[in-house]
Amino acid sequence: LSDADPMPLFGLKLLSVIVERNGAFVVILNKLKLIEVLFQYFEVNHAKFNAFTVKIVRAIIQSREIDLPDMIELGIVERMNGIFENVMQSNQEWCTDHLLEIINELLHMASEIKKGDEQEALAHLPQLIFDNFLVNFEYFMVLLTASDQTIVERAAQNILAFIHFSMISGIVRNELLVIKESQLDHILPAIKIDEPSISKNLIKALYWAMSLGQRGLRPKDPENIKKILKISEKLLQSSEDKSLLNTAREVVKLCKNQLGQ
Question: How far is the C-alpha of 9 from the C-alpha of 198, rounded, in Å?
Fold first, then answer.
């Protein structure tokens, strides 16, 4: 990796293939003290930041070989947010699905700390992860219109994951966690995609937003409520997923209530 170009690129490519096929190899990377080096590459404008680096970092995080406090010390939050912002501003999709997976995994790690017998030294970490990564919540909405369905699926998954995280006891509400009427232009077409997991995650997200009362989603345009109602009724007719059906049924009720029916 420290050789002259193009050897580092070949090295990263080979390493990404190895860790994707065998996650246990991350243990060896840790013993060789290479994880810190690889995290340094995981930064906007770094000469060795590329698709292979992203895949390697994702594999390291998903392996759980490095715990959350150590990753925060390595600057994962700042690096991740910087990369995500850069990718969204330049309208790139080449690594977005991997970035969404990384955020989702880190959120799960934070959730496990909060739900477990948390040590006092770790008690602040779940809120820190929640607040710092929530700046990307609006980006998740935009990615619902991505051309790659995998990205849409990951974005919908993250939207609901942050909503669920906010419900964990002790997590302080953050004003950035909100679904706006303008975002229905991203959400509603995505629900229509023929992929049950996307429909399920997004209809649950809409139910959460609409059930918050006055501070929740109350579209000013009746046509938007009718669109939500129509999609929800269609889900009731076409889906066999009990959880999705129950949520869609509740959304129908909320829509009719807002329409005064």
Answer: 35
Residue-by-residue pLDDT tens, the chain, 261 positions: 666 666 688 899 999 999 999 989 999 999 999 999 999 999 999 999 999 999 999 999 999 999 999 999 999 999 999 999 999 999 878 899 999 999 999 999 999 987 766 677 788 999 999 999 999 999 999 999 999 999 999 999 999 999 999 999 889 999 999 999 999 999 999 999 989 999 999 999 999 999 998 889 999 999 999 999 999 999 999 988 999 999 999 999 999 999 996
How far apart are the C-alpha atoms of 132 and 147, rounded to whole Å? 27
**CA quadruple 135, 138, 142, 146: dihedral sign:** positive
Q: Determine the length of the chain.
A: 261
Question: CA-to-CA distance for 154 and 158, rounded, in angstroms?
Answer: 6
pTM higher than 0.85, yes or no? Answer: yes
CB atoms within 10 A of CB 12: 21
Side-chain half-sphere CA neighbours of 145 within 13 A:
13
